[in-house]
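thread from #wetlab-drylab

HS: before we spend reagent money on co-crystallization trials with hypoxanthine, can we at least see a predicted complex? here's what I'd submit
DV: go for it
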Amino acid sequence: MRIAKTVELIQSKSHGFKPKIGIILGSGLGSFVDVLERPISFSYNDLDGFPAAGVSGHEGKLHLGNVKGTDVAVLQGRVHYYESGIPDEMTIPIRSLAGLGCETLILTNAAGSLVEEAMPGSVMLLTDHINFTGVSPLFGEKDISRFVDMVDAYDPVIRLSFHNIAEDMGIKLHEGVYMWFCGPNFETPAEIQAAKILGADAVGMSTVPEVILARHAGLKVAALSVITNMAAGMSDEALSHEQTMENAHKGVKDLKSLLVGFLELYS
Ligand code: HPA
């Protein structure tokens, strides 16, 4: 009910705008909204059930607009599990995107790299994830639909599109498995060694609960990580949120180009 009301409010204030693609912008990646044409913006505070975004680099706004002929809904800012210890805070935003008409959700995040070739400032397309937290945003759901199939959660056709776009643009696009740590502390070097053995290529504190919610809502999913640092123990540089923000800005140019290329393809 709450979602239907929120969707209705957004539709009434946007003259029935029907986005095809949803995008979630991660830490330091919010400037993507500059490419939106004819934007209409809502503060999360004015949308019932939307969380108040709390971490610097996360605005807390929903933007509707057009990019290269495709109508999109952009969530500028997310909340993380570590902010409240509640894993399902992005439920209403994601279900609202589906309610507005989105068929696909593209997630972005800042992540630490476990592979030497994927350096800070580069972009990695996710192929799969490992949920290392042991929690799910679907805890407590009663319906049989809670048993979500997570095979090919990261849509293989969309992944191929991103590789083709990257190749055309001359952008090196890495690919790998993302491991979700709950944060807010960074990982220990021993945890990163364990993550490598388990098959991770990147680590981060977001995205996975949103992917689960999006698949549960029937959305196709793709996810792009901007690599902001080599993971704990892999370089001499100290890990910090400031470093994440600084290096996110370096990768944002390629990320923007890839997203715009994708939206042009879907127009
Ligand atoms: N670990 C977890 N989250 C992150 C990292 C990291 O190294 N870099 C950016 N977000």
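DV: The longest strand covers residues 220-230.
HS: ok that's useful, forwarding to the group
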